[in-house]
Specification:
Elements lengths: L1 H20 L4 E6 L1 H4 L2 H14 L3 E5 L7 H10 L3 E7 L7 H4 L2 H16 L4 E5 L12 H18 L5 E6 L14 H4 L5 E5 L5 E2 L1 H4 L3 H14 L8 E7 L11 H16 L6 E5 L6 H9 L39 H4 L3 E2 L6
Parallel strand pairs: 1-2, 1-9, 2-3, 3-4, 4-5, 5-6, 6-8, 8-9
Antiparallel strand pairs: 7-10
Length: 345
């Protein structure tokens, strides 16, 4: 009697462990601060988010405004998570900015305001050297010092901290911009690789196969940690291929988006996706989510003291066949595609 009972207990414990360590799934869109503070536009995006199962807004905080905190409260009252995006070095830092604590402090003012407004997480973007900088192994060490400085201050407020990285950094460190994910791993809670297919070179090749480009990149990132990343991974994907934005129909843009989403869903050990549109145009995304079965986002209870979140009706679980799995990569294929010298567009 004892042996079968012990096996049952062990099985239950293992099952509970698997459940407790599984990543929550997030589906997010990026908003400028201007969009956040435009009531009609924000109401529209909240309505669409609730109808399509989007649970996260990545929201800029880049200038002081009395409208910021009330608008954030509206987002959170709708049951949507607020990830505060702070641009650290616009278009990448120069040596003077990188080494200036006074400059870091100015940026932290916006972090502090975002946390006080109720941010669920802080996302640091452009936390790097300019892509025009000459290669230097010291660059990543300099950026690492900045990351640790921000992490110490943000952790003291009990808020998670994410960083955005170039797509190429999923494969290897970049000595130009100073991003090395293995070096940074112990000082971040989340990493958001910007795996836009249009930003790999040659873009004609990589944007033609968005599923493979994104899926391979995410697997390469997690593979740097033996397929178990010590932080959450949210893939930044693009609302449209900007190289062909005027030459593609809405139907083509929707198919492109769907392939990007499928690539993230099929990747190892990731926590979801964030869609980037510089002008916050997401109608094609909303159509994709309304007309296709995608993995539903998780709507957890809010922090103690917050109003309880009312989960919107999520899209049903994916049942449609995903694109065929790509074959095992050869040594040549495993090498990262060359990145363009651009970041977000």
């Amino acid at each position: 009697m004892w042996q079968p009972r012990s096996k049952l207990i062990l099985t239950a414990l293992v099952s509970c462990s698997l459940i407790s360590t599984a990543h929550a799934w997030d589906k997010g869109i990026y908003l400028t601060q201007y969009m956040l503070e435009s009531p009609d536009k924000l109401n529209y995006l909240i309505k669409q988010a609730k109808e399509t199962g989007i649970n996260t807004f990545i929201i800029d905080h880049e200038y002081h405004s009395s409208h910021y905190a009330p608008a954030i409260a509206k987002v959170k009252d709708a049951g949507i998570k607020d990830v505060a995006r702070i641009v650290v070095f616009s278009d990448g830092g120069n040596a003077e900015q990188i080494h200036s604590k006074a400059y870091w402090e100015k940026k932290y003012v916006y972090v502090d305001e975002a946390i006080k407004a109720g941010a669920n997480a802080v996302q640091l973007d452009y936390i790097r050297y300019s892509s025009k900088s000459p290669a230097n192994p010291q660059h990543a060490k300099d950026v690492y010092d900045i990351i640790k400085w921000f992490k110490t201050k943000i952790s003291a407020e009990h808020v998670p901290m994410e960083i955005d990285i170039f797509g190429e950094v999923s494969y290897y460190p970049s000595m130009h911009i100073g991003q090395n994910i293995q070096m940074f791993a112990d000082s971040v809670d989340g990493v958001n690789p910007m795996v836009y297919p249009s930003h790999f070179w040659p873009y004609q090749k990589y944007s033609a196969v968005p599923y493979q480009t994104i899926n391979h990149s995410l697997d390469a990132l997690v593979g740097q940690f033996n397929n178990k990343a010590p932080f959450k991974v949210h893939a930044f994907i693009e609302a449209a291929n900007y190289h062909y934005i005027k030459k593609t129909s809405n139907a083509q843009k929707q198919q492109y988006l769907l392939q990007e989403i499928r690539a993230v869903e099929d990747a190892k050990d990731v926590s979801g996706w964030y869609v980037w549109s510089a002008n916050n145009v997401y109608d094609n995304l909303f159509e994709v989510l309304k007309n296709n079965k995608t993995r539903p986002a998780d709507f957890a209870s809010k922090e103690p003291g917050d109003k309880a979140a009312t989960p919107p009706t999520a899209a049903p679980a994916k049942t449609a066949a995903a694109p065929a799995a790509t074959p095992a990569k050869t040594e040549a294929e495993a090498k990262a595609p060359e990145p363009e010298t651009k970041s977000k567009t």
